[in-house]
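Ticket opened by: R.M.
Priority: normal
Category: complex prediction / small molecule

The reporter submitted a protein together with magnesium ion and asked that the result be attached to this ticket for the collaborator who will pick it up next week. Submitted input follows.
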Amino acid sequence: MDLGIIGLAQSGKTTLFEALTRGHAHTASFGSMEPSVGVVKVPDDRLDRLSVLLHAKKVTHIEVRFLDFPGSLALRGEGAGPAYLAALAQCDALVHVVRAFRNEAVAHPEGSVDPHRDIAEVDVELAFGDLAALERRQGRLEIEVRSARAGERDAGERELALLARLRAGLENETALRAQELAPEERRMISGYQLLTNKPLVIVVNVDDADAGRVGEIEQEFAQRWAAPNVEVAALCAKLERELAELSDEDAVEFRRELGLAAGGLDTVLQHSQRVLGLLTFFTVGEPEGRAWALTAGSTALEAAGKIHSDIARGFIRAEVVGWQELLDCGSYAEARKRALLRTEGKQYIVQDGDVLHVLFNV
Ligand SMILES: Nc1nc2c(ncn2[C@@H]2O[C@H](COP(=O)(O)OP(=O)(O)OP(=O)(O)O)[C@@H](O)[C@H]2O)c(=O)[nH]1
Ligand SMILES: [Mg+2]
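Result attached by the on-call engineer:
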């Protein structure tokens, strides 16, 4: 899962990236316009507790990759080049860091601090990138349709009509993710990797002095900007980076002194999972306790396929228990005795927090 960090110049992208990756990033050395890449384990208290309970020797968290793009997201004029856009298009979701911190020493590209204006501006930049991509696709498709035989133009013509509609929507400032599309139309455009079609997490980078009010600020921004596939988080990136350098105990103490809510970074990770439509299921046994990301609405068979293709192929049935129920019972045996360990088939829809044990033969 790749999350691309974007935003205007000097909004705190790299600061957030360093806080998230705790300095363990694999900074790209290819060239200055390449993003730095860092892998982050998604903290999950449920997994930690289950792993202790069942004596797992190894604990494996879900991992996401963050890509820190240098400089401004300025698609028009100079700024973002084709390589930048191509890398951005590969991301599964975008994290937009918007500056709300005041700091005279750091210049703002627009000359003043106004996060609402900047959110709107970056939205326009993304829409602009999509318009260009749609135009290119339209141009190619028109040639194809013209040279196709009369009976074979239908699909192309339907796609051209869709492209015209999408462009009109974008020109009206409606992001693709917010446009009303039939499921087969969504499928048609899923291969285009359009930027305003990607899930978005807006991270409001608040001033150090406002760190105690992040909850309030988050609400204020969410009221205005939260939408389907758009989540809002607020944090102070600078403080989060400082906290990330401390031991866990010191960080807890420091947070208390600052009146800072626990885990601003965790919130970003949780929002990212949510905005991607992912839920978490677990497999826990003696060798390993592991959390897995799964698209919401997936079946037990699809979950098994995540673990191993052989397990999906030889799927017999799944034993399923909720994480809290398993913790309360204290063991699989007790869960079975209390009839909380259910037997489910291939078509069972996996729920967030399910602990799965798949029985299979190969
Ligand atoms: N006071 C304050 N300063 C911050 C905060 N976040 C970032 N800064 C400062 O803003 C400056 C720019 O931060 P970066 O993280 O490098 O910003 P960036 O978006 O990666 O910048 P570019 O990659 O050059 O576009 C640095 O001097 C940071 O210390 C914050 O929350 N509070
Ligand atoms: Mg940077």
